């Protein structure tokens, strides 16, 4: 009880300090970054979605390592999960007889729509909200629903993980192509003078690769957890 | 040549993935090929840019440096790069026989190297945050690699505490971006001298958040509890790597941040000095009471980190370089001790020092190497630990000087206690060590002696500072050292070895996760009071 009261006191104190700091914020705001992105983002990267412009061009190396975090997390979860990956036919935690039939039937209808929507979000990442990371998560959710539809699916995780590593390798490769066209690594390899239409090709390619990688990674994590759940 | 930092980051990452994908035995040698290529590249790079390291700055994509992400090297980061590559050579050699049936281990190890080199050379705060996060995740996996119950517990403890710490780093970055409009370290440093920006509540608050998160990452006083747990349960090679270099990542970020906030003129040297002193003292008190060989070494890592932080608290001049030099020295001798302890544990099948006897007659070469490591850590003249400790001691105020002497006494006590494993009759043991385990230890011991006697030219080339004033040997130093050891023996004999109740209590003192959180919040509040409230009142 004393501990809880003390923690509460500390949190209240820190929150009060935050509120004190917030009085300063109006006066301090430096909008340099925001102005820059609003004025130049579209012309320099060919992306109407400024978030995509930032994470696929201005700060591409951050995105590469963000994808790397997922890669490492997947490898770590597989390593830590108890079951041997050579077991291919694992009975999943999902019990066919406990899942409502209505849910299964609806899943069959929704599944293609989910995949389509996921691909849509990936491919249109540079003109509308979304992108590789978000679309990849949607596609992975669609794949997860397959386990409800057909509960004795076989998944060869080893293959998926290998493909995921290869895709990550491809991402690094595509990102560093600009070393040969512009002389600087980790930016768009299509010169700015070609116009925004051509530039967006690169954005689509990278978004698709990232979406693919994220979907594979999340799929692996689901499968590892499903096995663990028994 | 300008993009060598990028190659240094991506060569190990790509090799690690190739090793993971192809499962032939021959592919394992790729790790050593990558290491050789990286060593050559780093040396060539250093030779080319030695005269003017400010030319190494570049931005990915040739964007405005306030927008894009840049890499930059200075003399300190180059020193760290060389140290990192060297340490990874040692660990890869030491764990070589283990890789055949554990591909994943090599994958994580090499990936960690690339990430760590990225952390050293980045010039962007958010990029630094991403690298620190990745390091946290990989180290969690490496700590949990044994898949035993206690290693899982230690790994999760490490992950949670460090995640809490790193979140405050992120908040600090947000506040800095809000008030400076960019997060390029070089540019923010030049803007810091503008008092209307830096002397505000917001930036002070950001500073507090960042220092708090660093104190978690580098295991300073109130939040060091994860370090002994994680280092004691990991494999010996991983322990050496963690104590030797990965924990220093936090200290490296501390160096970067002190350089960043120096123009703002906060009185941060006092608080960093206080943190260093308490860390050194508390770490050594815990270390004296332990009986598990790896716990002893892990708590000594905490206390030595305290000494490094004392050095860094000078912010510039000889004392600061003493702190940096102590980081290098500690990496050498602590990893040597951990590797030696790993061989001993592997052959005696126990970690309790009371059950290990007769090491000297059983394994003479290993014992000589371990004794070199012990002489270094206790600060014997002619060994590297002595140099950096005397540089740090030289400029300290009197009270700090005496606390540091106390820490030295505690270190001596602790290693007098550890040295009892050497005495006793020869034992017959089944398993034999391999030659590859001894090569890294011999190299580490050799470099300890070399840095202890030839520190002046080496530091002159690498850091461009003149340390020739600090001699590595005189009869007075030797006399002081012998007195310290004798006192240490007395303390051990009459206090530590009496099985006193207080000693047992300290040994079994465990900080639970809940208490660690309370400590974290209290520390944050104290820092806020010191840096944000008091200057405004």
Describe this protein's structure.
The complex is a heterodimer of chains A (230) and B (537). Chain A is 73% helix and 0% strand. Chain A has one domain (46-229). Chain A contains nine helices and no strands. By secondary structure, chain B is an all-alpha fold. Chain B has helices at residues 4-21, 29-49, 75-94, 96-99, 103-121, 125-143, 149-180, 185-192, 195-198, 201-217, 226-233, 236-261, 268-289, 293-312, 317-348, 359-362, 364-378, 384-394, 398-418, 435-453, 455-462, 475-494, 501-507, 513-536; strands spanning 58-59, 70-71. Chain B has a two-stranded antiparallel ribbon. The interface between A and B is large, with 52 and 60 residues.
- Main interface pair? A-B, 52 and 60 residues
Regions of chain A with pLDDT < 50 over 5+ consecutive residues?
Answer: none
Estimated helix fraction of chain A: over 70%
What spatial form of chain A do the alpha-carbon principal axes imply? globular
Helix/strand order of chain B: HHEEHHHHHHHHHHHHHHHHHHHHHH
| Helix count, DSSP H or I runs of 4 or more residues of chain A | 9
Radius of gyration of chain B over all CA atoms, rounded:
22 Å
Alpha plus pi helix count of chain B: 24
How many discrete structural domains of chain A?
1
SS-derived structural category of chain A: mainly alpha
Percent of sequence in beta strands of chain B: under 5%
How far apart lie the N and C ends of chain B?
52 Å
**How does the major sheet of chain A shape up?**
none
Compute the gyration radius of chain A: what is it? Answer: 22 Å
- Find the count of extended strands of chain B (DSSP E, 2+ residues): 2
The multimeric state of the shown protein is heterodimer
State the share of residues found in helices of chain B, binned by percent: over 70%
Q: Tell me, briefly, the overall form of chain B.
A: globular
Largest sheet composition of chain B: 2 strands, antiparallel
Mean pLDDT of chain A: 85
Subcellular location (chain B): Cell membrane; Membrane
Pfam families (chain B): Proton_antipo_M (PF00361)
Transmembrane segments (chain B): 6-22, 27-47, 67-92, 104-120, 126-145, 157-181, 201-227, 239-264, 270-289, 296-315, 327-345, 365-387, 399-423, 435-455, 475-495, 516-534
GO cellular component, one term (chain B): plasma membrane
């Amino acid at each position: 009880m004393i501990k809880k009261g003390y923690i509460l006191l500390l949190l209240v104190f820190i929150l009060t300090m935050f509120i004190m700091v917030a009085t300063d914020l109006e006066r301090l705001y430096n909008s340099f970054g925001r102005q820059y992105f609003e004025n130049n983002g579209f012309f320099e990267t060919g992306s109407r979605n400024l978030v995509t412009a930032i994470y696929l061009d201005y700060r591409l190396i951050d995105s590469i390592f963000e994808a790397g975090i997922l890669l490492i997390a997947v490898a770590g979860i597989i390593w830590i999960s108890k079951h041997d990956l050579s077991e291919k036919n694992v009975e999943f935690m999902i019990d066919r007889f406990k899942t409502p039939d209505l849910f299964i039937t609806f899943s069959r209808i929704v599944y293609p729509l989910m995949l389509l929507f996921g691909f849509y979000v990936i491919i249109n990442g540079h003109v509308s909200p979304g992108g590789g990371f978000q679309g990849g998560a949607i596609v992975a959710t669609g794949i997860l629903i397959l386990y409800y539809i057909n509960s004795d699916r076989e998944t060869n995780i080893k293959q998926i993980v290998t493909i995921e590593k290869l895709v990550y390798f491809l991402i690094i490769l595509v990102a560093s192509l600009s070393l040969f066209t512009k002389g600087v690594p980790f930016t768009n390899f299509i010169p700015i003078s070609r116009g925004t239409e051509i530039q967006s090709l690169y954005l689509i390619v990278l978004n698709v690769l990232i979406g693919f990688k994220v979907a594979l990674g999340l799929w692996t994590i689901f499968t590892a957890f499903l096995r663990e759940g028994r | 040549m300008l993009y060598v930092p990028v190659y240094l980051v991506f060569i190990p990452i790509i090799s690690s993935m190739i090793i993971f994908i192809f499962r032939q035995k021959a592919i394992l040698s790729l790790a050593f090929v990558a290491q050789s290529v990286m060593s050559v590249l780093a040396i060539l790079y250093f030779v080319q840019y030695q005269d003017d390291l400010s030319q190494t700055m570049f931005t990915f994509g040739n964007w405005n440096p306030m927008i894009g992400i840049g890499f930059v090297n200075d003399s300190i980061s180059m020193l760290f790069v060389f140290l990192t590559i060297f340490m990874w050579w040692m660990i890869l050699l030491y764990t070589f026989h283990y890789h055949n049936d554990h591909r994943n281990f090599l994958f994580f190890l090499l990936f960690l190297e690339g990430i760590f080199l990225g952390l050293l050379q980045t010039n962007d705060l958010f990029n630094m945050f991403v690298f620190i996060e990745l390091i946290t995740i990989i180290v969690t996996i490496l700590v949990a690699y044994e898949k035993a119950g206690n290693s899982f517990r230690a790994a999760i403890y490490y992950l949670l505490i460090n995640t809490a710490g790193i979140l405050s780093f992120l908040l600090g970055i947000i506040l800095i971006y809000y008030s400076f409009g960019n997060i390029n370290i070089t540019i923010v440093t030049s803007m810091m001298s503008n008092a209307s920006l830096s002397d505000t509540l917001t930036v002070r608050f950001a500073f507090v958040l960042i220092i708090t998160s660093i104190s978690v990452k580098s295991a300073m006083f109130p939040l060091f509890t994860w370090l002994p747990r994680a280092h004691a349960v990991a494999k010996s090679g991983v322990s050496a790597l963690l104590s030797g270099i990965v924990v220093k990542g936090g200290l490296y970020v501390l160096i970067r941040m002190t350089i960043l906030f120096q123009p703002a003129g906060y009185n941060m040297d006092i608080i960093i000095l206080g943190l260093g002193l308490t860390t050194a003292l508390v770490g050594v008190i815990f270390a004296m009471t332990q009986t598990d060989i790896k716990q002893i070494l892990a708590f000594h890592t905490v206390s030595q980190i305290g000494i490094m932080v004392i050095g860094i608290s000078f912010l510039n001049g000889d004392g600061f370089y003493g702190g940096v030099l102590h980081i290098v020295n500690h990496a050498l001798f602590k990893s040597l001790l951990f590797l030696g302890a790993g061989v001993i544990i592997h052959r005696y099948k126990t970690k309790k020092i009371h059950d290990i006897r007769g090491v000297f007659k059983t394994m003479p070469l290993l014992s000589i190497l371990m004794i070199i490591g012990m002489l270094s850590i206790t600060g014997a003249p002619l060994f590297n630990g002595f140099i950096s400790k005397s540089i740090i001691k030289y400029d300290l105020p009197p009270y700090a000087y005496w606390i540091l002497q106390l820490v030295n006494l505690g270190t001596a006590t602790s290693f007098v206690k550890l040295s009892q494993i050497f005495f006793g009759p020869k034992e017959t043991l089944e398993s034999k060590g391999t030659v590859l385990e001894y090569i890294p230890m011999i190299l580490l011991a050799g470099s300890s002696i070399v840095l202890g006697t030839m520190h002046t030219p080496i530091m002159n080339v690498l850091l461009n500072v003149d340390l020739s004033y600090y001699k590595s040997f005189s009869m007075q130093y030797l006399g002081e050292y012998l007195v310290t050891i004798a006192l240490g023996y007395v303390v051990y004999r009459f206090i530590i070895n009496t099985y006193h109740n207080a000693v047992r209590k300290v040994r079994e003192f465990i900080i639970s996760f809940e208490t660690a959180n309370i400590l974290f919040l209290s520390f944050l509040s104290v820092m806020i009071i010191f840096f944000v409230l008091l200057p405004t009142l």
